[in-house]
Amino acid sequence: SRAPLRDVVNLVNKYSQTKFIIGDPQIEKVTLSGRFRADDGEALARALERSFGIDADRSRLTEIVLRRAQ
After folding, report:
1. What would the pLDDT profile of 34-50 be if each residue is shown by its tens digit?
2. What's the burial of 25, exposed, middle or buried (CB within 10 Å: 0-12/13-18/19+)?
3. What is the 3-state secondary structure (H, E, C) of the chain?
4. From CA 26, how far away is CA 11, in angstroms rounded?
5. What is the value of pTM for the model shown?
6. Residues 62, 63, 69, 70, CA torsion sign
7. Around 43, how many Cα atoms within 13 Å sit in the side-chain half-sphere?
8. What is the pLDDT of residues 6-32, one digit of tens each?
9. Among 13, 20, 60, which residue's Cα sits nearest to residue 39?
10. Distance between terminal CA atoms of the chain?
11. How far apart are CA 30 and CA 68, in angstroms?
């Protein structure tokens, strides 16, 4: 199914120990499709970087900050 990034982030944040933060409001409405495990935030971060031009900043211990890739 298809869903905006903000909805996917809200779902993943319920189940993942690592929390996602959307650090760039311009990417909130990026539409994702496919299947992601809600408890595997790292797999989602890799997919966003590889396929959607989104940078997943992992410099914080318990958070991944998402921004448009430069």
Report:
1. 888 888 888 999 999 99
2. exposed
3. CEEEHHHHHHHHHHHCCCEEEECCHHHCCCEEECCCCCCCHHHHHHHHHHHCCEEEECCCCCEEEEEECC
4. 19
5. 0.90
6. negative
7. 10
8. 999 999 999 888 899 999 999 999 999
9. 13
10. 28
11. 10
Pairing state between β 54-57 and 19-22? unpaired
Residue type, 37: R
Q: Are 6 and 23 in contact (CB under 8 A)?
A: no
Q: What is the residue whose two structure tokens read 């989104």?
A: 54
Query: Between 41-51 and 5-15, two packed helices, what is the crossing angle to 10 degrees?
Result: 160
